[in-house]
């Protein structure tokens, strides 16, 4: 199924990106500097929003997504002094501790196998005071929408690459020891209703 997701992903996300996602990504990423790791880089939607990064490491374990990511990197204007593509998963980041100034997760923590292990790994590879930059769809605060998310999640996970609609990601980030610098909750316009509730912001490593 991963080849199918890689094939349709950009088209599936297009309306949401035009309505709000593109602006949100720019807001979060354009000021990043230093050494940056992006987890679950997918097809490279974030590439155009990096401005002056020293080292950009793009981690994407899915081979079909990674193929499209490589094509986009080859076509994109330079956004970093060095760009590396790696196969690391969120649960096993294969680098030394304290390697990065920032780790970026956009629409990724919904689909990782183990959220806590992923966040623990992100903490490990961040330098003290480093930033976790996130944009994630999450469980709705509205009870009626949350009920729909819970009903549809089992099927949605099967067709959307293990994507969970009911994760309380903000709480998971705090429980992993991060401190929010800022966080915004907002509905993603033009997204499917079950994935419309989102959080975005920056959390600081200890």
Strand content: 25-35%
**How would you spell out the order of helices and strands?**
HEEHEEHEHHEE
Distance between the termini: 38 Å
CATH class call: Alpha Beta
Structural class: alpha/beta
What is the correct CATH architecture?
Answer: 3-Layer(aba) Sandwich
Question: What does the model show?
Answer:
With 206 residues, this protein is α/β, with parallel strands linked by helices. The protein has a single domain, classed as Rossmann fold (3-Layer(aba) Sandwich). The chain contains 5 helices and 7 strands. Strands 3-2-1-4-5-7-6 form a 7-stranded mixed beta sheet, sandwiched between helices. It is globular and about 45 Å long.
What is this entry, summarized?
The protein is α/β, with parallel strands linked by helices and 206 residues long.
Topology:
Blueprint: H1 2-29, E1 35-39, E2 53-59, H2 63-75, E3 80-86, E4 100-106, H3 115-125, E5 126-137, H4 143-159, H5 169-175, E6 179-187, E7 197-204
Parallel strand pairs: 1-2, 1-4, 2-3, 4-5
Antiparallel strand pairs: 5-7, 6-7
Helix pairs in contact: 1-2
Salient structural properties:
single chain; 206 residues; alpha/beta; Rossmann fold; seven-stranded mixed β-sheet; 5 helices
